[in-house]
Amino acid sequence: MARSRLGPLALESPLGQSSGTSGYWRAVHIEQRRNVAVKMFSIPFGGTPETKREFMNEWETLKKLRQPAIARCYGGGFEGKDAYLAYEMIEGESLSEQVESRGPLPWQAVLDLADPLTEALAYAHDRRVVHGGLEPDKIRMAGLSPVIVDFRAERATSVFRVQRPPTIEDFAYRAPELIQDPGAMSPKCDLYSLGGILFYALTGRHPITGSTPEELAENAVHQVPPNVSTEVFDCPTFLSAVVEQLLQKEPVDRPHGADAVRMAIREVRRRSAAGTGVAEHVSSGFSPLKVQADSKEARELLGRAELELREPVAPKPPLWERAWFLSVMLVLLCTFIGWVLWPPSESQLRARAEKLLAEGGRINMGQAKSQCLEPLVRRFPDGENADWARDQIDQVEMVETDHALSVKLRRGMKLRNEAERRYADAQRFEQFGDPSTAIDKYRSLVTLFDNEPDHRVYVNLARRQIAEIESQGIRSGEAERILRQRLSEADKLMQANEVFEAKEIWNSILELYGDNDGVQPLVLIAEDKLEALKRSQ
To answer: Tens digits of per-residue pLDDT, 259-312?
Structure first.
């Protein structure tokens, strides 16, 4: 990397080679003489003003996290097309380095590790901050105490992410629901990752196996990790039970929160110190520890069966438990189910679809499409409402595709095909205020893909935008007038000391019109303005 300066920071060297520290640099704050760990993000076009403001809000949230087991975030910034976050430098080795060099940790040391980690997660979750990327390399040892590094407040939604292919470690410790849907971020995801980290510390291997990241991603959804007590013979059953519950595939089957895990860990410590057996534990009443065992069998093993489990005389069952009453209810239930599941007619499907579409919103529109419109076309392809249903399906698909594209652009995700790329390109010109160029690009998209079924939705979207632009009476060849207007706006913003907004206009002109020979003099003006601004800073 050629850059040696990043705002007020002087970059020294990359930090680590493992996945958890990818994108990190050792740096020094020149004025404060403070060592920091810098995480850098390279974003095409430098990001939009909206995403930059969201990133600024994120680092302000992270700066408020003050907990001994969480590496502090000092803030962040932007430099050209790069963004960065500056964190407290933790000099100790990571948990993965410790296990690789010395082997699995004793279970007593894992308890000492788990206690501060659960406290840190409980603290962050109480403030609605989810790490979302916990793995052994992100647990670093400050002396004898573990510290969590690389906290993010918007890891799932921010476009400011390290651009690198996923690794085996990324999927080995990621919650299954997060692999299937990156938007399913919740505190339960951190609890799953914590279970994986404890499993690794106790056994020295990942909880999920696989030879490639793709295989890991597939296995993480279905593969059940082995019980720790079968891998580590001296590990207490209680600790193994905590890890097993944390690694449950369904979030609802994991502990309620980090506080509950912390209580369970402390209970493990007490039970292990007292030498309590499983049978005595499950027979003793409420406990935050969940151990799979039969309480009746446990009491019998302890000699309590005669005293505590005497069979009471069975009372006469109430009315709702008698056979004749249950039979009547079963008949009524079957009748009701048959009435509800009777396939609706064509007119009923249309009426239901119209109601959902009138209510608006993407969820209602999606339900109208899947539950009413598509069944109507499938069951009544030549019916009187079939053409209407096909038109409505087109409208819903346009809304869904438009929304999906906006999410991709906001997150900086790769566009999947040429039609999508051309539509996004035309949309940028329209948003910039150049409908003349935008309409030319929309028409080009229609011409290229009009007869390709796979790209029908983008052709429909382009035709919709063409109709909207033409309804406003837009003349062609207005790029020069629009650029002069935007340059004038940028000058006024600079006079009002709105430097960031003015800089965004100049950057947009270079990105959108850099290859347009007809407006090169105006493009050069924007380029000169940016150079002058850089020199003044």
So the answer is: 999 999 999 888 887 665 444 444 444 445 554 444 444 344 334 434 443 444
Do the beta carbons of residue 377 and residue 389 sit within 8 Å? yes
pLDDT tens figures, 477-495: 566 777 778 888 888 888 8
Please give the structure tokens belonging to residue 40. Answer: 């850098």
Alpha carbon 17 to its chain centroid, in Å, reads 24
Distance CA 171, CA 208 (A): 8
Residue of 192, 152, 182, 133 whose CA lies nearest to 58: 152
What does the block give as tokens for 195?
């279970």
Q: Do residues 190 and 258 make contact, with C-beta atoms less than 8 angstroms apart?
A: yes
What does pTM read for this prediction? 0.54
User: 269, 320 in Cβ contact below 8 A?
Assistant: no
At CA 87, angle to CA 83 and CA 90, rounded to 5? 140
Helix (H, G, I), strand (E, B) or coil at 143: coil
| Long-range Cβ contacts of 5-11 (<8 Å, 24+ apart) | 6/38, 6/40, 6/77, 6/79, 6/82, 6/84, 7/77, 7/79, 7/84, 9/36, 9/38, 9/84, 9/86, 11/38
**pLDDT tens-digit readout, 210-231:** 888 888 888 888 899 999 988 8
Model pLDDT, residue 95: 94
Full set of structural domains in the chain with CATH: 5-88 (3.30.200.20), 95-282 (1.10.510.10), 346-471 (no CATH), 479-536 (no CATH)
